[in-house]
Amino acid sequence: MRQDASSDRVRGLRLGVNVDHVATLRQLRGTPYPDVLRAARVCAAAGAHGITVHLREDRRHIQEHDVHTLKAWGGLPLNLEMAAVPAMVEFALAVRPDEVCLVPERRLERTTEGGLDVATRRAELAPVVRALTDAGIVVSLFIEPEPAHLEAAASIGAPYVELHTGRYCTAEGSEAARELDRLVHAARLGHRIGLRINAGHGIHLGNLPGILEIPHLDTLNIGHSLVCEAVFIGLEAAVRAMLEGMRAYRGGRS
Ligand code: PXP
User: Fold this and answer.
1) CA count, 13 A, side-chain hemisphere, 15
2) Where residue 187 sits, what CATH number does that domain have?
3) Which of 76, 103, 180, 195 is 20 to 30 A removed from 143 (C-alpha atoms)?
4) Which tens digits make up the pLDDT trace of 116-145?
């Protein structure tokens, strides 16, 4: 039931939906809902090309069982974002998601705040890229759009990089134009040296036009804005369903 992600690309792009914040809502209350697998199924039905989850060290949203469940479902390719630490590498080698995106992780950050410093961590990252690749997992490195990191990523054999779009997505005016230029140049350089290019972080409908200017993109990974928009697109239907439930109930005590 896995989709052929190459045949139904949109403008040559795949959309990977990050469902972390579905799990955030669940963890906030300790309830069994909202169900991450149900969310993944909705994404698949809507035409998404992949599901992304970040298993953070503090387990603030996605849990190990979510990754196992999504992998067992197999309805869409699974991209696991994780830190390049031994425990996570061991976990990934056991679960075998389709893709792993290596990200830097700081315990108290609200979200991933910057890219991996591949240029200085090359020696440490190279064996991780190799081990995951040897296991048949497609590896991506989440980086700032800087030539040094692109060149380092290519030199250690990473097939993909994911360009951190966060700065562009929150910038305005001339700063936004500068950040977009950095992304465009990085994508061109990456393509020239044989890397495949993904992009993600902070993308929403408002800044999407700029993102679509970036050449050579393969996949956009988007999470937070989709879950936020789902509140407004879905709240009316949820309220109607609750009212219908109240109307339909035939029991009651006096
Ligand atoms: N890509 C990476 C590597 C990320 O860490 C995140 C956030 O977890 C995203 C994409 C998605 O970012 P957002 O939730 O802002 O759309």
Assistant:
1) 20
2) 3.20.20.70
3) 76
4) 999 999 999 999 999 999 999 999 999 999
Which atom belonging to ligand 1 lies closest to the Cα atom of 203?
A: 16
Taking the centre of ligand 1 as the mean of its atom positions, its distance from the CA of residue 223, in whole angstroms, is 6
Alpha helices, DSSP H only, in 118-223?
118-134, 147-155, 166-170, 173-192, 208-211
What sign results for the dihedral spanned by CA atoms 135, 133, 166, 200? negative
Report, as residue numbers or ranges, the catalytic residues.
54, 81, 201
Print the domain residue range for 165. Answer: 14-246
Q: Is 105 in the pocket of ligand 1 (CB under 6 A)?
A: no
Kindly state whether residue 128 falls inside one of the protein's structural domains. Answer: yes
In the beta sheet, which residues pair with residue 54?
A: 81
CA 56 distance to own-chain centroid: 13
pLDDT in tens, 202-215: 999 999 999 999 99
| Residue 1 within a domain | no
| CB neighbour list of residue 101: distance below 8 Å, 6 or more residues apart | 52, 79, 80, 81, 82, 139, 140, 141, 142, 160, 162, 198, 221
pLDDT in tens, 15-72: 999 999 999 999 999 999 999 999 999 999 999 999 999 999 999 999 999 999 999 9
Given a cut of 80, whether residue 147 has pLDDT beyond it is yes
In a domain, 36, yes or no: yes
Domain count, the chain: 1
Residue among 176, 164, 182 at smallest CA distance from 207:
176
Residue found under tokens 């910057």: 114
Rounded to whole angstroms, how far apart are CA atoms 111 and 49? 23
